[in-house]
């Protein structure tokens, strides 16, 4: 599995992207609204590192409560794998808990992603190749 991006929770996406630009990050695309998750998403990159800025748009957004609890913060690494169902099964035998079913990610070419939680390292995302 290869690291694809690091997800950042941000309260105000336009301000956050400006702050990342000040560090030398460049937007890879336009801001995309993910209706399924109720979030705005912007991918940026620098030195081969890709970050995903995720900003909840309303109280029903999947990460709304997380945002309230944690504030602006990195919150997941995403790993690219051949088969997210198989890999999530393998990881669930190692203590990872699958926290939602595979869903398409409109901001990543509609590819399928799944989120898992580990009691000792937090959240990861798997992205299907
Ligand atoms: Ni992500």
Overview of the molecule:
The chain has helices spanning 13-22, 64-70, 84-92, and strands spanning 2-9, 26-27, 32-34, 39-46, 49-56, 73-81, 97-98, 103-105, 111-118, 122-128. With 129 residues, the chain is of the alpha+beta class. Strands 1, 2, 3, 4, 5, 6, 7, 8, 9 and 10 form a ten-stranded mixed beta sheet that branches. It is globular. It binds nickel (II) ion. Residues 5, 7, 52, 76, 78, 125 line the site of nickel (II) ion (NI).
Q: What is the secondary structure topology, with strand pairs?
A:
Blueprint (H helix, E strand, L loop, with lengths): L1 E8 L3 H10 L3 E2 L4 E3 L4 E8 L2 E8 L7 H7 L2 E9 L2 H9 L4 E2 L4 E3 L5 E8 L3 E7 L1
Parallel strand pairs: 1-5, 6-10
Antiparallel strand pairs: 1-6, 2-4, 3-4, 4-5, 7-9, 8-9, 9-10
Bound molecules: nickel (II) ion.
The site of nickel (II) ion (NI) has 6 residues, from strand 1 and strand 6.
Which tags fit this structure?
129 residues, binds nickel (II) ion, ten-stranded mixed β-sheet, 3 helices, alpha+beta, globular
Uncertain runs: none
Helix content: 10-25%
List how many beta strands DSSP finds. 10
Question: What distance lies between the first and last C-alpha atoms, to the nearest angstrom?
Answer: 10 Å
Could you tell me the radius of gyration in angstroms? 14 Å
């Amino acid at each position: 599995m290869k690291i694809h991006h690091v997800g950042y929770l941000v309260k105000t996406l336009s301000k956050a992207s400006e702050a990342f630009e000040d560090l030398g990050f460049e937007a890879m695309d336009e801001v995309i609204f993910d209706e399924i998750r109720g979030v705005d998403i912007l991918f940026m990159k620098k030195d081969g590192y890709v970050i995903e800025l995720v900003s909840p748009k309303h109280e029903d957004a999947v990460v709304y409560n997380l945002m309230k609890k944690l504030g602006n913060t990195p919150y997941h690494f995403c790993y690219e794998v051949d088969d997210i169902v198989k890999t999530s099964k393998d990881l669930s035998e190692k203590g990872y808990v699958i926290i939602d079913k595979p869903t398409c990610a409109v901001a990543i070419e509609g590819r399928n992603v799944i989120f898992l939680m580990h009691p000792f390292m937090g959240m990861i995302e798997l992205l299907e190749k």
